[in-house]
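Human: I would love a firmer grasp of how sequence relates to backbone shape in proteins. Take your time, and here it is.
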Amino acid sequence: MRVAISPQGNGWTLGALLLAAALAVWLLLQPSLIEGLALPLRLPAVLLGTWALGAGFIGPLEPPSRRRWLRRAVSPPWNLLALGLFALLLAVRSLVV
């Protein structure tokens, strides 16, 4: 598998990478934000977080897949939407808990 750094960097890619890193650290410091959810709500939150953080970290890399749906899932605007929704979920959970 060959992975190359994408030559067309932009502010959105860097912003998504920094937001994904901040959310990952936040979850490491406060895992109770997700653990405190009931199971029917926890599974979608974990799936959304996995997609959002994974897409945020792979954003600066060139997607190795030839599948169109996979490339679209890890590139803007979908990865930014997932990161925004996950950040909103964590912010609401931190205010409620």
The radius of gyration is 14 Å. The longest helix spans residues 39-58. The chain has a mean pLDDT of 86. The helical segments are 11-29, 32-35, 39-58, 68-73, 78-96.
